[in-house]
Structure formats: structure tokens, C-alpha cells
């Protein structure tokens, strides 16, 4: 397969890295906002291939990570009920809440099921008319069309015993939130490819213009990430700040319009809490009033659940690119993927868990942000 | 779970008025909803996220993306249990499906 070789070719990677080296005259801090990209960067050591002074920091792009702890506790409270069949994507099952995880609840007799597609919940609900089927609807814009379709079909087909526990977030408001912080270090963004396959990239254009920051929509393969980095560095060095599309073989400016339409008909934009970060205004979805009969938060008495995170965890700063995993005193010691203390350790797509999975907690050379903070100031804010 | 997985549409069918397909991912075949890419035909390659096709792609891109996802261990969702449709008249009252 010609393209396969092309995209995995170390010679091509070296050429792009050389081009980045030739282009770069100053230090720059770039952030990716896609858990798949984070995982790929750490697995392939892409950040270590880049010239000195180009730092990759890892944004809030992992949907499992940014789901608030209190939402996980709400899920657990609902899943424990004998009248409920609680359905979830597999990767939410091992995320610990205040008292165990969904596997714990299953082992205590709770009816917890892993589903592949949200539409599976319709089949389960029709087969179990005496049970309430609740789906844990988490994720970014990529997942929203699937979850919207579940609710739309449930309403249309009159399947009343289906509801969703919504914890849906959107990428552009998180980028705005990062750039608005007085502590911000990020000067350019690698935009999330598969999110933009659904949403297109129109909405990133006002963001790029307002904050004068380059945003390059990028795939998750190693050469995509290197190419996206080169395109971002070129813009920064030339003093430009626009949205560019590195991933044009997958997506265009408009995205998937039918999916966007259904999402807009089922969900409306709402303030959302992000694990580690806190509330970001207008940063996610809630169900529209017309679909309130399928809103698990309204159907079950879980509104009062409010859980505090351990104070030692610095995941909020990591998600905003202000700190790196090695800046944390408990990274890889007290806090591990088996016993995660916060957002960036709960899923393999989180920065801390990815660093841990690929042995970076053992490295003698500990990458902290300290050496680049000065460089970043010298480079000036974008 | 934030990445979509490419597969080949091997069969298209109607399910309660919804356009659905059987999509082959390596050795695994799973159902996917085609409502968001209505122009899709049997033989096309699509990017599928949690049971929904979100865009059509070419064969070479599909092969490369699949390989890259495999290396990142991002294909495990394909192994989630298959939920079979049970006709309501076959359900005994108070029993339900497990």
C-alpha cells in the first residue's frame, strides 16, 4: 500500500522535522486538543523529535477525562437502582467515582451494560419494557450526533423507557477558555480532526481571528501531527493567524451537515463543567425542553450530587498547558492509571495516563514546563 | 473513544425507517447507521464513530487509518457486545432480556 508506506516513512518524518528546524527562529508552545493526538504524540515520541524550543502541551481533548467527577457519581447513583439498566461506552466503566467504578456496581448486582452504539439502548429498552434504560451520553462533537439520534429515535418511536445522562462538551469554547487565561502559554493549536469531520472548521475561524492564534486542523497519525506542527510554526514565524486544514483528505470546512442539524434539533448549548477546569460558559450541550422526558438528570433525583476533587491534582493546569505531568509531585507515585486522582490520569487518552503508559514516569529527564516558561515569554504571546 | 474507525460497507438495509449498514472492520462486522451519510453505497468506505458513519473516505485512506488506530490500540470498541433485537411479543412479562 503506497500511502501506508508514505505516511509511516521515517525519511518523510525526518524531512518534515528538518523543515520545521529551518522555519523556526523562536521558541513556540503548541497545544493539541484531541485525546487521539495526545496518545499518538506520546506513543511515537513526536514531541521528542521536534527541535529544541518547540513544546507540545496536551489540551482537554480526552472526553472520558473531562467528564466531571460529580457526573460520574450521578451515573453511579442511577446505575445502582434496581429499576435501571445502565448503558455506557466501555471506557467509562473503569473510571472511579467517589465509591468505586461501574464495574464495582455491576459486581454488586447492578445491571450495567457496555454498548457499542447508543442505538443499542433502543433495542435493550424495547426488550425490557419494565426497566428504565439510561445511557451515559458523554463526549465531544464527534459523539453528539450518535447520542442525539438515540433521543430523536426514542421520541419518534415512542420508546419512553430510554433516557440519557448528558455530559457533552465542545472543543471551541475550551480553546477560548485557555486563551483567555492570564497564565496562558499556548501560541498555536493543532485542531481535532475527527471532531471537525462532523463540525467542519468554520467555527474555529472567529476564534483564530479574535485571539490572533493559528489553528491547524490535524489528523492523528505521526506524519499528520508533524505536518500540522510545521504549518502552525510557519504561521507563527510569518506573523499570520488563520485556520488551515492539514486533514483535507478527511474533512472540509462545512463538516457533516445532516449530523449538525440533528444535534441542533435535540440539544441546545449550555454551560458545562469540565473535570479539572471547572465551568466553561456555553461549552456543551443539554437536551432541549421538547426531549425532557428522556433527560436522566430530570427523571432521577441526582441534582444535589456535587463532588470535590483531591486538591493535590494539577490536571486543570495540565489541561490548559500551564503545567506538564512531571510538574506534579504525585505523578506516577500516588497517582497512577490504577488509582487516578484526576482528569488526565483516568483514560489512556489523557496526558498523565499516556506519559505513564509509555514509561515517561520512569525517565531520568523529567520534562517540566519550567525551562520553557522563560522561552515562551521571550517568544511573546501570539 | 474520540476517534472514528474506517470500514467497508458490505450490506445496506432499512431498520424501522433508518438507513443502516453492515460495515466490515478487519475481521469484525458491525452495524452502523447511515443516516448522516445518506449517499453511501455498498462497497464504499466510511469512517464510523460509535455505530454512526460520519464521512466517506477512499480505500487507501481507510487502510492507513485502520492501521494507525490498531497501533494506538483504539479498536477495542469494536469488541463491545452485540445487542440483538428481540421482538416484543417474544418477551415474557416481567422477564426482560439479559
How would you portray this structure in words?
- The complex is a heterodimer of chains A (382) and B (98).
- By secondary structure, chain A is an alpha/beta fold.
- Chain A folds into 3 domains: 2-45 and 172-245, HypD, alpha/beta domain 1 (Rossmann fold), CATH 3.40.50; 64-170 and 255-299, Rossmann fold (3-Layer(aba) Sandwich), CATH 3.40.50.11740; 316-379, no CATH class.
- In chain A, 41% of the residues lie in helices and 17% in strands.
- Chain A has helices at residues 2-8, 10-23, 35-44, 46-49, 63-66, 69-79, 102-107, 120-127, 144-157, 171-180, 193-199, 204-211, 222-238, 257-266, 296-299, 315-319, 351-357, 370-379; strands at 28-32, 54-58, 84-88, 111-114, 132-139, 162-169, 188-192, 215-218, 243-245, 267-274, 278-287.
- The longest helix of chain A has 17 residues, at 222-238.
- Chain B has 98 residues and is mainly beta.
- In chain B, a hairpin with a 2-residue loop joins strand 1 (5-15) and strand 2.
- Chains A and B meet through helix 1, helix 3, helix 8, helix 9 and helix 11 of A and strand 3, strand 5 and helix 1 of B.
Detail the topology: elements first, then pairings.
The complex is a heterodimer of chains A (382) and B (98).
Chain A: H1 2-8, H2 10-23, E1 28-32, H3 35-44, H4 46-49, E2 54-58, H5 63-66, H6 69-79, E3 84-88, H7 102-107, E4 111-114, H8 120-127, E5 132-139, H9 144-157, E6 162-169, H10 171-180, E7 188-192, H11 193-199, H12 204-211, E8 215-218, H13 222-238, E9 243-245, H14 257-266, E10 267-274, E11 278-287, H15 296-299, H16 315-319, H17 351-357, H18 370-379
Chain B: E1 5-15, E2 18-25, E3 28-33, E4 45-49, E5 52-57, H1 59-71
Antiparallel strand pairs in B: 1-2, 1-4, 2-3, 4-5
Amino acid at each position: 500500500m503506497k500511502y501506508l508506506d508514505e505516511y509511516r516513512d521515517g525519511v518523510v518524518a525526518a524531512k518534515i522535522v528538518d523543515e520545521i528546524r529551518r522555519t523556526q527562529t523562536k521558541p513556540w508552545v503548541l497545544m493539541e486538543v484531541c485525546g487521539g493526538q495526545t496518545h499518538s504524540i506520546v506513543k511515537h515520541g513526536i514531541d521528542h523529535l521536534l527541535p529544541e524550543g518547540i513544546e507540545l502541551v496536551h489540551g482537554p481533548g480526552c472526553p472520558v477525562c473531562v467528564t466531571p467527577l460529580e457526573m460520574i457519581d450521578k451515573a453511579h447513583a442511577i446505575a445502582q437502582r434496581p429499576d435501571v439498566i445502565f448503558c455506557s461506552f466501555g471506557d467509562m466503566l473503569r473510571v472511579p467515582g467517589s465509591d468505586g467504578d461501574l464495574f464495582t456496581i455491576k459486581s454488586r448486582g447492578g445491571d450495567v451494560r457496555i454498548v457499542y452504539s447508543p442505538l443499542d439502548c433502543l433495542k435493550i429498552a424495547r426488550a425490557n419494557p419494565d426497566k428504565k434504560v439510561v445511557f451515559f451520553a458523554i463526549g465531544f462533537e464527534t459523539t453528539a450526533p450518535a447520542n442525539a439520534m438515540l433521543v430523536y429515535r426514542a421520541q419518534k418511536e415512542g420508546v419512553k423507557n430510554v433516557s440519557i445522562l448528558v455530559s457533552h462538551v465542545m472543543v471551541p469554547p475550551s480553546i477560548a477558555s485557555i486563551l483567555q487565561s492570564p497564565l496562558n502559554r499556548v501560541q498555536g493549536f493543532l485542531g481535532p480532526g475527527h471532531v471537525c469531520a462532523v463540525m467542519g472548521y468554520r467555527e474555529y475561524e472567529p476564534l483564530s481571528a479574535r485571539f490572533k492564534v493559528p489553528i491547524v486542523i490535524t489528523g492523528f497519525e505521526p506524519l499528520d501531527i508533524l505536518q500540522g506542527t510545521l504549518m502552525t510554526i510557519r504561521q507563527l514565524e510569518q506573523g499570520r493567524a488563520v485556520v488551515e486544514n492539514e486533514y483535507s483528505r478527511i474533512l472540509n470546512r462545512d463538516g457533516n451537515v445532516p449530523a449538525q442539524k440533528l444535534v441542533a434539533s435535540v440539544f441546545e448549548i449550555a454551560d458545562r463543567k469540565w473535570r479539572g477546569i471547572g465551568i466553561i460558559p456555553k461549552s456543551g450541550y443539554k437536551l432541549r425542553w421538547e426531549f425532557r422526558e428522556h433527560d436522566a438528570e430530570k427523571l432521577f433525583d441526582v441534582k444535589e450530587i456535587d463532588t470535590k476533587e483531591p486538591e493535590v491534582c494539577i490536571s486543570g493546569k495540565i489541561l490548559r498547558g500551564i503545567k506538564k505531568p512531571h510538574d506534579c509531585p504525585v505523578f506516577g507515585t500516588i497517582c497512577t492509571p490504577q488509582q487516578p486522582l484526576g482528569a488526565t490520569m483516568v483514560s489512556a487518552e489523557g496526558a498523565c495516563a499516556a506519559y505513564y503508559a509509555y514509561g515517561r514516569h520512569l525517565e531520568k529527564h523529567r520534562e517540566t514546563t519550567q525551562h520553557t516558561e522563560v522561552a515562551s515569554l521571550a517568544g511573546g504571546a501570539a | 473513544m474520540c476517534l472514528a474507525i474506517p470500514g467497508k460497507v458490505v450490506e445496506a438495509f432499512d431498520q424501522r425507517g433508518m438507513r443502516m449498514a453492515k460495515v466490515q472492520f478487519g475481521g469484525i462486522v458491525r452495524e452502523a447507521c447511515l443516516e448522516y451519510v445518506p449517499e453511501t453505497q455498498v462497497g464504499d468506505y466510511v469512517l464510523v464513530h460509535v455505530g454512526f458513519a460520519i464521512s466517506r473516505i477512499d480505500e487507501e485512506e481507510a487502510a492507513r487509518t485502520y492501521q494507525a488506530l490498531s497501533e494506538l490500540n483504539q479498536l477495542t470498541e469494536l469488541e463491545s457486545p452485540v445487542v440483538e433485537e428481540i421482538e416484543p411479543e417474544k418477551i415474557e412479562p416481567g422477564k426482560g432480556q439479559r
